[in-house]
Task: inverse folding
C-alpha cells in the first residue's frame, strides 16, 4: 500500500517536470514585435518583417492544425534538400483561406529567403511578411473553437470601441505543445489593423 508521502513525492516530481519543460519551451524564439498599447490581455503590436514556412490544408480547423504542423515539423527537422535542422519557433499560426487553412511556422530571424533549404515536400512554401500592425488577445486554456470564438469577439469589440479598422480574418496563434496543462498555455487570436 502506497503512503501519503509517496503520492506527495510523485506530485512534486510531476510538477517539477512540468516546470522544467515549460522553462525549456519558453526559450523557443518568438517573432520580434513592439507593443504600442495594452488593455488588460489585449495588445496592439508592430511586427518586424519575417519569413514564414507555410502549408495549405483542407478539413476542420483541428485536423488542419495537426496535419499542417506535421508537414512543417518534418521540414524543420531535416525534411529538406540539405537535411538541415532548423530551430523550432513559436507560435504555430493558423488562418482560414477560402475552404482551406494556412498553417505557418516563423523561420528564425537569422535566415534570409535565399538561405533556407528547399523543402522535400512541395506543399511547404515560403512567404515574406512585411511590417504588420497586429491586435492580439492572449488567453490560456484549451485552443478549442468556442474559446477562440469568445476571445475573437472580445478583441473585435475592443477594436470597434477604439474606432480601429481591422481585417476580419483572424490568425490563431498557439505557443505550446498539446500536452501542456491548460492553465499554462499561451494562445492568441490576432487581427491585422490600420491605425
Result:
Amino acid at each position: 500500500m502506497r503512503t501519503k508521502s509517496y503520492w506527495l513525492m510523485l506530485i512534486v516530481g510531476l510538477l517539477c517536470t512540468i516546470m522544467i519543460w515549460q522553462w525549456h519551451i519558453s526559450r523557443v524564439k518568438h517573432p520580434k514585435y513592439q507593443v504600442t498599447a495594452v488593455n488588460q490581455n489585449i495588445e496592439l503590436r508592430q511586427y518586424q518583417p519575417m519569413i514564414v514556412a507555410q502549408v495549405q490544408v483542407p478539413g476542420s480547423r483541428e485536423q488542419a492544425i495537426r496535419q499542417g504542423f506535421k508537414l512543417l515539423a518534418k521540414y524543420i527537422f531535416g525534411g529538406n534538400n540539405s537535411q538541415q535542422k532548423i530551430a523550432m519557433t513559436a507560435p504555430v499560426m493558423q488562418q482560414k483561406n477560402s475552404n482551406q487553412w494556412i498553417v505557418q511556422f516563423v523561420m528564425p530571424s537569422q535566415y534570409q529567403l535565399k538561405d533556407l533549404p528547399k523543402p522535400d515536400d512541395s506543399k511547404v512554401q515560403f512567404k515574406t511578411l512585411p511590417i504588420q500592425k497586429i491586435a492580439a488577445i492572449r488567453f490560456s486554456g484549451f485552443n478549442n473553437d468556442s474559446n477562440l470564438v469568445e476571445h475573437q469577439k472580445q478583441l473585435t469589440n475592443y477594436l470597434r470601441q477604439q474606432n480601429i479598422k481591422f481585417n476580419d480574418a483572424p490568425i490563431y496563434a498557439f505557443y505550446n505543445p498539446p500536452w501542456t496543462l491548460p492553465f499554462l498555455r499561451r494562445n492568441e487570436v490576432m487581427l491585422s489593423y490600420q491605425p
